[in-house]
């Protein structure tokens, strides 16, 4: 087993506010790790630091041995990191098929001249992209929605489509940011099965942020808990459920008279 993601001493300040404080995380190939904590704990900031949205104040991030510090987001995606977002970010005026196809665009090999002149290399690769996108939609049981505008899909299917688009980039590491947000209990149950299936079928390393405890406790063998930007506990679901610091982070400390 080799370390796919290695984070050491990751710290990020927004002015005088420390959003992430000395965050450490190592993920081996094939790990499925849950990242939890109350609102404002710094979870999404960690994702933004990994994907190059922010540059850390201090610390190191290595992906497959390559430092990500100072690297542009598109270059990080090219290395094999994909993500979803708290708020769905699909292209609403494009079809489901077009959304997934866009997920693999940075992998195209045809050049500017082939694109402008519409040379055979352009059409050949575009056909392959559409074929692969359709195969992904089929795996996600969205093939019957291929020509449907993304904005017209039910909420649960939009979430599935976003994960599907992320996988179109052929990633090694997937960052899922609250995929169960806004879902009803039936959709949450289906999502849990989907995440486990995707993780195993595509042989991914997966880091999951989620507020719904039934999701992380149900599918993540290892959980990292944060509060005020720092890690307060790491362990199995059982260990995290019984950790006093985690309980206090969510419920507050009991006042003693």
Explain the overall architecture:
With 257 residues, this protein is of the alpha/beta class. The protein has a domain at 3-80 and 171-251: Rossmann fold. It is 38% helix and 24% strand. The protein is built from ten helices and ten strands. It has helices at 43-50, 73-79, 96-102, 112-117, 120-139, 155-167, 185-201, 213-219, 237-241, 244-251, and strands at 3-14, 17-28, 32-36, 58-63, 66-67, 81-83, 173-177, 205-209, 222-227, 230-235. The protein has a six-stranded mixed sheet with strand order 6-7-8-3-9-10, sandwiched between helices. Helix 3 crosses helix 5 and helix 3 (96-102) runs parallel beside helix 6. The longest helix has 20 residues, at 120-139. It is globular. It starts with a strand and ends in a 6-residue tail after the last helix. The relative contact order is 0.17.
């Amino acid at each position: 087993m080799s370390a796919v993601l290695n984070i050491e001493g990751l710290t990020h300040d927004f002015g005088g506010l420390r959003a992430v404080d000395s965050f450490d995380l190592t993920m081996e190939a094939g790990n499925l790790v849950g990242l939890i904590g109350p609102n404002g704990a710094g979870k999404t900031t960690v994702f933004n630091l990994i994907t190059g949205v922010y540059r850390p104040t201090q610390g190191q991030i290595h992906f497959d041995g390559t430092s990500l510090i100072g690297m542009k987001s598109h270059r990080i995606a090219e290395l094999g990191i994909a993500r979803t977002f708290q708020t769905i970010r699909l292209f609403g005026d494009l079809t489901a098929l077009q959304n997934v196809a866009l997920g693999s665009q940075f992998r195209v090999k045809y050049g500017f001249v082939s694109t402008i002149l519409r040379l055979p290399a352009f059409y050949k690769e575009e056909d392959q992209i559409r074929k692969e996108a359709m195969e992904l939609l089929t795996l996600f049981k969205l093939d019957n929605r291929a020509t449907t505008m993304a904005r017209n899909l039910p909420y649960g299917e939009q979430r599935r489509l976003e994960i599907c688009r992320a996988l179109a980039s052929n990633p090694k590491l997937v960052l899922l940011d609250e995929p169960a947000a806004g879902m009803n209990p039936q959709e949450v149950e289906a999502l849990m099965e989907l995440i486990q299936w995707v993780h195993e079928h595509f042989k991914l390393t997966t880091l999951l942020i989620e507020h719904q405890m039934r999701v992380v406790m149900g599918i993540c063998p290892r959980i990292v808990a944060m509060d005020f930007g720092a890690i307060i506990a790491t362990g199995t679901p059982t260990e995290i459920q019984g950790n006093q610091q985690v309980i206090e982070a969510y419920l507050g400390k009991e006042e003693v008279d």
